[in-house]
Amino acid sequence: MSDTTDTGPMKAADGTPLKKSLARALRRQKLRALALIAPLLVFVLVTFVAPIADMLFRSVENQIVHDTLPNTVEALKDWDAKSGEAPGEPVYRALSVDLQAAAELKQHTRLGSRLNYENPGVSSLFRSSGRGADKIGKDFQNRFTDLDPAWKDGETWAAIFGSDEWLAADAAWAADKSGKLPPFRMRGGVADALPLTANAYRMFAKDAQDAGKDPAAAKPWPVFYDALAQDLAANASPSTAALPAAQAPLIAAASAAVAGFEPFSYKDAFLGMNKGWGAVSTWETIQTYSAAYTSGYFLNAVDLEKGPDGIQARPAEERIYIKLFVRTMWMSLFITFCCLVIGYPVAWLLANLRASTANVLMILVLLPFWTSLLVRTSAWKVLLQQQGVINDILVWLRIVEDGHRLVMINNQLGTIIAMTHILLPFMILPLYSVMKTVPPTYLRAAKSLGATPWTAFWRVYFPQSVPGIGAGSILVFILAIGYYITPELVGGTEGVFISNRIAFHISSSLNWGLAAALGAILLGVVLLLYYTYDKIVGIDNVKLG
Predict the structure, then answer these.
(1) Which of 238, 284, 387, 521 has the fewest CB atoms lying closer than 10 Å?
(2) Per-residue pLDDT tens over the stretch 189-241
(3) Structural domain harbouring 348
């Protein structure tokens, strides 16, 4: 009978179980590896992933309509666009409060610009009505101040809508005006009793404090009086529990007086400002694009639009984007093909010449990188124009007549020529790096076995250069579809790419949503082609030498 001793789990030198010690060492190793790649990871997230995510968000984001016209959007839910008539008085009543507040915050012009993308002319409608709506508020302001001069004072409004804690903190700040303004706090329950006025005052207080002003000392907005009249008309006896005791008699008197105010037609007032407010199409646009998120930008990007009957094609004269997408794709493919046809022999020559000679020629290939893209493109404008160098030489050689000079600028031909020249080095370099790795003895061995020079090249050399062709083609194609400077300068109206329209909407029309949608579609097309290429050729076969 032998004694057996249970020694337990194996331990490290410090007495820790070996398994636990190994796991700790592996964890430390992974953390060190993560720390090494963290700067690169952050850089990629900030400069690549975040911009793409922001672009995708902008392509569907549409919160400006709902945020700027919240009461109008709610009132429009009961309106049927198919009725063929403009909405009723409640919608115009809500629009009055929303538009006055938006005009005070300088947001009505931004809203008009957004809706103008869908219905041209709406921008001027909002711009002109912003001033007119303010007169409605001033009319009600005169009625309230005639009733009691206390309505003129900012302290009155602050006492009604500000919480007791905020009023105390604000009074303490006003005594010595040191430190930061106390953030505004709404009185509990007042938003239920006077919803329109409370919401307007909340925006007023935030705007005043953002500008470093005390809301209690700032001049009240005229919209307060319009909103208060509507709130008191809708609720003749607001709950006094939610209102401060000191201002309760003031509000009670105003509530009694509102019932005797001369009737006011908001619809007539807006139609007097601009007849556009009576157009059904104006309200259709507001109602259609009142959601916080929209597919409208993507529909516009493929020449469609939202209508009262659903999605429909845009008018024939406005359908340009599908044509530009198709043009961008086929021209980019053709430019890639031209670069391959020209670059393949050049790369083969560089790979098979003596090193000293190849280095000199390589400098010529790299020389364009030392010249500004704008300078190279401008040089092609000089060369290709009808009175340019190329046409002059052709006329001098009597290849073409002076009265029939070739048109090679401001068209697709000019774009193809200029971009092929600019992108050619991006094809030559991957080809050269791969061809340099192909031993020349392979061709000699093929010939010694009876193959002709063409057979030796096609059956032996060319297959080994395919990875370089793949790398160069992907590089040139992706660069080509994103170019916009060269097509803009030499392409005219027939040779521009979809990227030119994206640049236009970002820098000129400021329609960032449509630009983001166009960019997202272009990104999707590139990823689809990339996926197709991977399935047919295999991305693993792409090499740079």
Answers:
(1) 387
(2) 888 889 999 999 999 999 999 998 999 999 999 999 999 999 988 876 666 66
(3) 321-541
